[in-house]
Amino acid sequence: MEIKRKDGRLANQLRPIKVELDYLKYAAGSCLLEMGETRVVCAVMVEEKVPPFLKDTGTGWVSAEYSLLPYATTTRVPRSSSQSGRSQEIQRMIGRSLRGVTVLKALGERTLWVDCDVLQADGGTRTAAVTGAFLSLTMCLFRLHRAGQVKLPVLRDYLAGISVGVVQGQPLLDLDYSEDSVAAVDFNVVMTGRGELVEIQGTGEGRPFSREELERLLNLAGEGIKKIIAMERSLLGEDKALLFGQ
Amino acid sequence: MEIKRKDGRLANQLRPIKVELDYLKYAAGSCLLEMGETRVVCAVMVEEKVPPFLKDTGTGWVSAEYSLLPYATTTRVPRSSSQSGRSQEIQRMIGRSLRGVTVLKALGERTLWVDCDVLQADGGTRTAAVTGAFLSLTMCLFRLHRAGQVKLPVLRDYLAGISVGVVQGQPLLDLDYSEDSVAAVDFNVVMTGRGELVEIQGTGEGRPFSREELERLLNLAGEGIKKIIAMERSLLGEDKALLFGQ
Amino acid sequence: MEIKRKDGRLANQLRPIKVELDYLKYAAGSCLLEMGETRVVCAVMVEEKVPPFLKDTGTGWVSAEYSLLPYATTTRVPRSSSQSGRSQEIQRMIGRSLRGVTVLKALGERTLWVDCDVLQADGGTRTAAVTGAFLSLTMCLFRLHRAGQVKLPVLRDYLAGISVGVVQGQPLLDLDYSEDSVAAVDFNVVMTGRGELVEIQGTGEGRPFSREELERLLNLAGEGIKKIIAMERSLLGEDKALLFGQ
Amino acid sequence: MEIKRKDGRLANQLRPIKVELDYLKYAAGSCLLEMGETRVVCAVMVEEKVPPFLKDTGTGWVSAEYSLLPYATTTRVPRSSSQSGRSQEIQRMIGRSLRGVTVLKALGERTLWVDCDVLQADGGTRTAAVTGAFLSLTMCLFRLHRAGQVKLPVLRDYLAGISVGVVQGQPLLDLDYSEDSVAAVDFNVVMTGRGELVEIQGTGEGRPFSREELERLLNLAGEGIKKIIAMERSLLGEDKALLFGQ
Amino acid sequence: MEIKRKDGRLANQLRPIKVELDYLKYAAGSCLLEMGETRVVCAVMVEEKVPPFLKDTGTGWVSAEYSLLPYATTTRVPRSSSQSGRSQEIQRMIGRSLRGVTVLKALGERTLWVDCDVLQADGGTRTAAVTGAFLSLTMCLFRLHRAGQVKLPVLRDYLAGISVGVVQGQPLLDLDYSEDSVAAVDFNVVMTGRGELVEIQGTGEGRPFSREELERLLNLAGEGIKKIIAMERSLLGEDKALLFGQ
Amino acid sequence: MEIKRKDGRLANQLRPIKVELDYLKYAAGSCLLEMGETRVVCAVMVEEKVPPFLKDTGTGWVSAEYSLLPYATTTRVPRSSSQSGRSQEIQRMIGRSLRGVTVLKALGERTLWVDCDVLQADGGTRTAAVTGAFLSLTMCLFRLHRAGQVKLPVLRDYLAGISVGVVQGQPLLDLDYSEDSVAAVDFNVVMTGRGELVEIQGTGEGRPFSREELERLLNLAGEGIKKIIAMERSLLGEDKALLFGQ
User: Fold this and answer.
1) pLDDT, tens digit, 9 for 90 and up, residues F79-138
2) Best exposed site among A2, C25, D131, E138 by fewest CB in 10 Å?
3) For position B246, what pLDDT does the model report?
4) What's the pLDDT at F82?
5) Chain B residues with CB inside 8 Å of A71's CB?
6) What is the mean pLDDT of residues C32-48?
7) Each residue of C87-130: pLDDT tens digit?
8) F78 CB within 8 Å of a chain E CB
9) Taking CB atoms and an 8 Å limit, are A208 and D100 in contact across chains?
10) Which domains occur in chain A, in start order?
């Protein structure tokens, strides 16, 4: 028998997703992404410079920053904590995920700075940020391509992230905050359009979990990501396909 | 003969203003305010505590923070500079302005934290932040009033801010970034519904200015603020009037 | 009927000013300035380098820092707070004021660092700092001129600052701390030798103020600044006139 | 055909492990742990206080810090970077892992501070730190138990960590630095004595990875952890079994 | 044959000393002390609180801070470096020296904060600071005594500091900067009115030094300190003698 | 009659010293040094760059850092305090001491970074660090010599440090923490193989001390250092003699 979710969703059902592409004027790519009540602004800006370890290699870099705005949660988060350990952990994960599908050689020697600011946090902010960051990155790369500044293909595949977890013994897709805060097992999964994994972070802080649970959670995540990537494809439009060498 | 403004505005014409009240779920009062291409998120959160110098006085406090998000301008602003001298100067000005119309005694011993984050900066961000902060503060105070937590009146008057400046010898209202960056004289003005001044900051970094210019700039600012406050009244609705003891 | 000032001054009377020019050995220009019990050390040092945004423009820069020494007030101010928001706001104002009368092109590609340290704070520290900084800057520019390192004119006009405010309904010139701490309206004004304005900062944190009050306060400030600039002229001596192209 | 490992190990072979328990005099539990050339000092100290969110709940806390000493790698790491994003990510993972097997209620209102300092880094430092931290934690809890300060059971299970990865298409156990730096897929796995998972972090920064690869990597990790936990049991001795309620 | 000193002094001659006691209005004790061109402001402020390790012991504390103002040397010292390692080393030495002659039990549970700011640095700033700090401390303690807030004796002895060093093989007293910068051996010595040592810091960064040289340097320092303490006695006046139990 | 030392040592007896040379794999020179229960890791790493003030002079530099690891003392020291004033004072002393016997010209334009981390602190950590740092430096220089990268002689003499102090009126050599914490007078002495002094830091925070006490303490320190340097010679071996030009 299934657990009853607060908002009436099925265990394997995503929250409604809303995306406003090119949300910002000065960023090279950006969006405002909402998953249920979670709301994230993602923006990509281009710097014609790479970190020291890449100098004179012809290779580019993608670097991400993540921040919870002070009013994103029920209790105000002082700005000084915005670069907390949690934020650092998350922004490293976003950066790795994006680099996992980007052809850095094709970028040329430039850095794409990806900022993800959470306006409202109702669970799943880091995976929403991965999805929003990927959309913004794609828009940015399309502009760079139009300006003749990147080689093709510059992206290996589509990318999206989702959270899954076990609540009262039941694996659930896309946890909101009320679910996340009582989950015994908590996973963040990032996958590609071909269904391969790019990043998986799972923790059983409440209790250890078995290989079988892991399987079920990854299946659930896979289902969710497939739907999100379908949304991404239609949102980005067919003209972006050439970035992927298609 | 008049200078021709990039967007066709008259010298004494405001940019279009758009406000989404209660933009955020967890804040006690909030809005997304746009003036032309300038876009600011304002949020007020309540902390049941006052700074040390107010302890056991029965009086409350209003404290503001202002930050430029990294993608708000054409060149990315590193997050570490978000608490720059400029931001500190601005947030002190926002705080003073709000306290200038708030009856702190009526607040009780609590602090209202007002956050103003600039999503997009096309000039006039600090005065847009004053206006947005005032709207959010009013929404927050209305909720506190409904919950029986503040005395009335808790606000002395309506409040709004606007920038004015002299460009190519011509006083202009509500400068956008392209105007602001070449202005010889630059003013930020905060006024009340009765047309009194709460804060005035003027600087002639390009060249000194005369008392006559000051007069003309304040007249221009007064015109603009009158229109903004009319918009505030209609936006907030009549039921908020009691906060002002009306 | 006039308010009675603690030290017997008239409403439009300055405190006694004492200046020791070239107070310091290593600075290119410096002074110890006292206005009543307020005491500020100002020093200018030359760096043969400009901030990045001015590189290769042939133009120089003036940058100010302001700090309250720990023993400047009745309660010790920890050193860590010396770069507080208040200090940042003030040093930005000092920098803008000085740049307002300096011909940056004539400076050549160098930065003049102006430090203002308050040894004793009895009100009006920021405007005393503007006056002391201007005197030190002039001494420094005179030395640079003698060494053939700046073009003439390098200064547009004399400069001084003063505070004015409304205490118990009475506009007062040059507030000491006991007056400042109860002032309903509080102004800092920076003007030139020709009586033009360079910077005006006014705040009605206690209550809003009218245009008429603004007029009266600016008149009062203008009177005071005229006297201070007369003192500056006599102190600096006639040989400095050539810096102003006279 | 198998890849040839630099040190002649089989793909599923651990590096030699050496542990010196109670390595430090003042810590309540500590060890020096070596896995091949990787060398970590782990120490647990007791503070009779909990973080604010646990006050008056009767529940304790385990908090971990991880740091790379400046001479741990071939190029010196400045001390200021020791609290880098990478360190923060790692210490959060160590803390979660330890809390995953600790009965926090049984601890009483105290915090166990776990420090992990890497003297020498030749790959696998974070999982070596998990193993060393668990051993130190157990020694500390045994002392607290002897002093009558914790309830039993205070540990749910044994715990160890190991890294696995894919190098030149070959899944390998316990990567050294030369292997880790060329791995396409990189996993850190923390498991219990019963073979359940507590933490799994996998990233395909080089390229995405399939569910099958994930399976094989987890099998490899499981084998390795089984051996490490056998070592832990014999090292800790039978008298520690009662901490686990056995 | 003796080395010729720039200012014509003998090897064992002090620079002229000038002291302005009670230099500051808000500090409980203060002075402006000049030794030749070195100029230091010292101030003592009272806080009715002690550091945690002294709570409820009835014992007081003396804590010193030392800072080089940005214009104190020929090249401007950025403010951020004012809490450099050098400053920290020096302020710890000043604090220890003062505590060495203060009867902390007699102080009661309060902290005396001693600030030493160097306006102009021409060598010997740290020992000038010790002397100036001692004078300020004595003035402060005299006021506390008058107010009935300390027991007597509260000071064990007079205190002063001086630098000595070896330049071109010649031991010299009270080095100015031009001497200090070429000294092979460099000593800072703090002694009491009875000629006992409180602090000695000697370093042979240029070359090691012998026990004989140490003897000669300490003799030289002893001579100098005797003179400084005679000056202190006459400056402080006979009424201060009771602080020392005389 | 002599004071009885906790561990049965005579007043002029050192604690047992144990050194493991080349303790670390990646450092160019390193050791683990134990003096009784005090345990310090010292490591030297080479950077092919000098601080700005030495650029293009052909001269090298030696820079030291000292840190107390969080578990080094009975109460945990938060990592943030690891760069405390005390640490800064100590690392400056270690750096000066090493430079006192190093021929910086012979080093070439490179910096030797010397890190000293205290694993366990039972008194005398800073002088143990000097001794350990000297041993590590010598090993590093020997490697640089073998690689033909330094001129000879590159060291002027052997170097070691020791603490001495007065406990209950009795001068003692090599104080442990229980002795150090009650010592009235406290000295750290660094001497060379020829018995000359490089650094002496003495403080009478408990009470002033006489010249006679100073003599006795330095004699005691001299005895101890002679023994430590004999140990260093035998440990380093005869082949290192050429670094000293022997």
Assistant:
1) 876 578 899 999 999 999 999 999 999 999 999 999 999 999 999 999 999 999 999 999
2) A2
3) 80
4) 58
5) 24, 26-27, 30, 43, 45, 115
6) 98
7) 999 999 999 999 999 999 999 999 999 999 999 999 999 999 99
8) no
9) yes
10) 17-238 (3.30.230.70)
B244 DSSP 8-state letter:
G
Distances (CA, A) of D88 to A91, C44, D84, D93: 12, 43, 6, 9
Q: For residue D191, give both structure tokens.
A: 């498991």
What residues of chain E, 114 to 143, have a C-beta less than 8 Å from chain C? Answer: 115, 117, 119-120, 122
What percentage of residues in chain B have a pLDDT greater than 90? 91
More confident residue, C44 or C205: C44
Residues of chain E with pLDDT under 70: 1-2, 81-83
Residue D55 touches partner A, C-beta closer than 8 Å: no
In angstroms, the CA D227 to CA E151 distance is 69
Q: Is a pLDDT exceeding 90 seen at residue C198? A: yes
Distance from the Cα of C194 to chain E's closest Cα (Å) equals 32
F25 residue type, one letter:
K
C-beta atoms of C203 and B203 within 8 A: no
CB of B228 within 8 Å of a chain A CB? The answer is no
> Residue B84 has what pLDDT?
82
Q: Which amino acid is at A217?
A: L
* R_g of chain C, CA atoms, integer Å: 18
Main-chain dihedrals φ then ψ at residue A159, nearest 5 degrees = -150, 140
Q: How far apart are CA A97 and CA A102, in angstroms?
A: 9
Q: CB contact, 8 Å: C220 with chain B?
A: no
E contact chains, 3+ CB pairs < 8 A: C, F
The model's confidence at residue A82, banded by pLDDT at 50, 70 and 90, is low
Reported ipTM: 0.94
Residue range B105-152, pLDDT digits in tens: 999 999 999 999 999 999 999 999 999 999 999 999 999 999 999 999
Is A94 within 8 Å of B140 (Cβ atoms)?
A: no
Q: How many CB atoms lie within 10 A of CB C118?
A: 25
Q: Do D196 and A208 touch (CB under 8 A)?
A: yes
Residue E73 confidence (pLDDT): 95
Number of neighbours of residue D222 by Cβ within 10 angstroms: 16
Instruction: Enter the tokens of residue F212.
Output: 């006679």
SS3 per-residue string spanning E95-121: HHHHHHHECHHHHCCCEEEEEEEEEEC
Cross-chain residue pair D70–F65, CB shorter than 8 Å? yes
Q: Do C132 and C40 contact (CB within 8 A), yes or no?
A: yes
DSSP helix/strand/coil, A44 = strand
C-alpha to C-alpha distances, E5 to B66, E172, E175, nearest whole angstrom:
58, 9, 10
Q: Strand B185-192 vs strand E61-68: parallel, antiparallel, or unpaired?
A: unpaired
Name E197's Cβ contacts closer than 8 Å, sequence gap at least 6.
Answer: E189, E190, E191, E218, F202, F204, F208, F209, F210, F211, F214
Chain D residues touching A192 at Cβ < 8 A: 208
- F225-241 pLDDT tens trace: 999 999 999 999 999 99
Strands (E), B22-79: 29-35, 38-47, 61-68
Asked if A194 and D207 come within 8 Å (Cβ–Cβ), the reply is: no
Alpha carbon of D244 to those of A27, A203, D19, D154, D158: distances in Å? 55, 21, 21, 6, 8
